[in-house]
Amino acid sequence: MVALGVLLHAIGGFAAGSFYIPFKKVRNWAWESYWLVGGVFSWIVAPWVAVLLTSPRIVDAFRAAPPVSLFWCYFFGVLWGVGGLTFGLSMRYLGMSLGYALALGSCAVFGTVIPPAFEGRFGELLGSTSGLVTLAGVLVCLLGVGLCGAAGMRKEKEQSDEQKKQAIGEFNFFKGLWVALFAGVMSACMAFGLAAGKPLAAAAVAHGTPDLFQHFPVLVVVLAGGFTTNCLWCIVLNLRNRSGRDYLDARGASLAANYVFSALAGVTWYFQFFFYSMGTTKMGRYDFSSWTIHMAFIIAFSNLWGLFFREWKGSRSRTRGLVVAGLVVLLASTVVVGIGNWLATRAG
């Protein structure tokens, strides 16, 4: 069961690590324009399609869920939306490799450790072998993130300004560093939102939703909060930058292609939580550790894409080797966390 959960997290991590690629095909649109179009599909359209296909009595489930649970789901979704906004900016300033590593590294720590502490379960982790192994996996994940971050700093020193701009048009290490760290902290609110939505998930199961899909209704609420934040900010930028005409004019590029690629990016992004929510149901008693595994896979796949797109061109072989070492450690962390969950399942 735990192995299946890890596999589902790997698929979700691949989707999350790949979603930004279709955006590279968008032409002559401002960032806020294609980000909002993609967001409509990732935060509204795709979640509702998934829940309507898997929850036959979704209206009854929402009625049965405690209102306070729905409120906290939405509230944490709003905060997570702030992280989503700044996460997109980190890609602009740092590229896929370093941006993902720094943003999701901090996200992994806060999103994994705080929920069990909030629920009063942290003492349980420290008092059992399975809990200690799981926490060790979190520390291994941090080591992998640190290696990727160190490689990124070496890369920043080794590449010429021209090489940086060729790989990442708006490269700015220090601006991107602060944006990525802030994005990671705020993005961890997704884990809080999913934890707050457990009563809704239980209500969905009670009204005919299969266990595997029980978190899909929760995602609808959390992502609605995220959409609120992103939509308002993108509209502000549309007005400030006079980019609202993008939705009707690609100025020489294909308008239809811009919509298609933005929608593809949005749906691909949603698939990370489509598989994440299913994987969480298979992780046993320490389901909170799903967040660490999810983040580790995202960082690993995004760094592989960064290497593929030659974002590390001009850096030394030792620096690229450091990236590879970081990826190996990140993948090892998922194994350690998985073992911790397996031990918890046996003990239970």
Task: Jot down its keywords.
348 residues; mainly alpha; 79% helix
Topology:
Layout: H1 2-18, H2 31-54, H3 58-64, H4 67-118, H5 122-126, H6 129-158, H7 161-167, H8 173-187, H9 189-196, H10 198-206, H11 216-241, H12 255-280, H13 290-308, H14 317-347
Short description:
This protein is mainly α and 348 residues long.
Describe what you observe in this structure:
- This protein has 348 residues and is an all-alpha fold.
- Helix content is 79%, strand content 0%.
- The protein has helices at 2-18, 31-54, 58-64, 67-118, 122-126, 129-158, 161-167, 173-187, 189-196, 198-206, 216-241, 255-280, 290-308, 317-347.
- Helix 4 packs across helix 13 and helix 13 (290-308) runs antiparallel to helix 14.
- The longest helix has 52 residues, at 67-118.
- It is globular and about 55 Å long.
- The protein starts with a helix and ends with a helix.
- The mean pLDDT is 82.
Q: How many E strands?
A: 0
How large is the radius of gyration?
20 Å
Low-confidence stretches: none
Task: Round the mean pLDDT to the nearest integer and report it.
Answer: 82
Main beta-sheet strand count, sense and barrel state: none
